[in-house]
Amino acid sequence: MVEVKLLGAWGSPFSRRVEMALKLKGVEYEYLEEDLNNKSPLLLKYNPIHKKVPVLVHNGKPIAESLIIIEYIDEVWEGPSILPQDPYERAMARFWVKFLDEKCMPAMWKAFWSTGEEREKNKDEAIEHLKFLESEIKGKKFFGGDTIGLVDLAANFIAYWFRIISELVGVELITDDKFPNLSKWADEYINSSFVKENLPDKDKITAFFNARIRAPDETKYFPKA
Ligand SMILES: N[C@@H](CCC(=O)N[C@@H](CS)C(=O)NCC(=O)O)C(=O)O
């Protein structure tokens, strides 16, 4: 019997990417909630290099790193395609998700959690990156076109988690006037019924980041659900 397990954490945007990919494909799986403050032997065994969630375990074989997991899911299971079929479009989707994780996410994160001049510098950097996304999404419903695809799943942190943090720390980045296309995409994305059902509870995310604002050193990981 095919066995699919997902080691995840409820508040993690990376875990949620993978959960959504599995659900888009209609794959049945067992979800194992990880305590990141006290990592399980299973997580350490299956992801000894990074020791992070998500990890997908397919018939006993582990795969780590959310974007790699999603590509695997797309290749292994039938159902709606998550990556485009066209080789050039596939390459572009891979380009954008790399850009999201390597450039946008760190720059936005630094802008949220720094102060003073440093914060202004980080904000400028984040805005420069976001401008590229703004023009990429222009005229499209989703990055994937009419349906949600790899880039939308990967950009989930912008549409949900980072909007919440942005409000809590008072750092405006994606405003309707500066980034109308990206704002519209974010609304469309989080309000699509499929995504809405698969996002973590807003109050719980807010409580976690409020705790992080009060005590950053003691609030590293989402507490176990
Ligand atoms: N690049 C990884 C990032 C995964 C990641 O950062 N996961 C966090 C949870 S949001 C984690 O497991 N952190 C544990 C740690 O840093 O030790 C991916 O895309 O899967």
Automatic annotation (TrEMBL):
The GST C-terminal domain extends over 86-208
UniProt EC number: 2.5.1.18
Q: Which GO terms describe its molecular function?
A: glutathione transferase activity
Q: Does the keyword Transferase apply?
A: yes
Q: Please give the catalytic activity noted in the UniProt record.
A: RX + glutathione = an S-substituted glutathione + a halide anion + H(+)
A Gene Ontology biological process term:
glutathione metabolic process
Keywords for this entry? Transferase
Homology family: Belongs to the GST superfamily. HSP26 family.
Any one GO CC term of the record: cytoplasm
Q: What PROSITE patterns does the record point to? A: GST_CTER, GST_NTER
Asked if the Swiss-Prot or TrEMBL record annotates the protein with the keyword S-adenosyl-L-methionine, the reply is: no
Query: GST N-terminal domain spans which residues?
Result: 2-81
What's the protein here called?
A: Probable glutathione S-transferase
Please list every transmembrane segment annotated in the UniProt record, as residue ranges.
none
Q: Which organism is it from?
A: Buddleja alternifolia
Record Gene3D superfamilies: 1.20.1050.10, Glutaredoxin
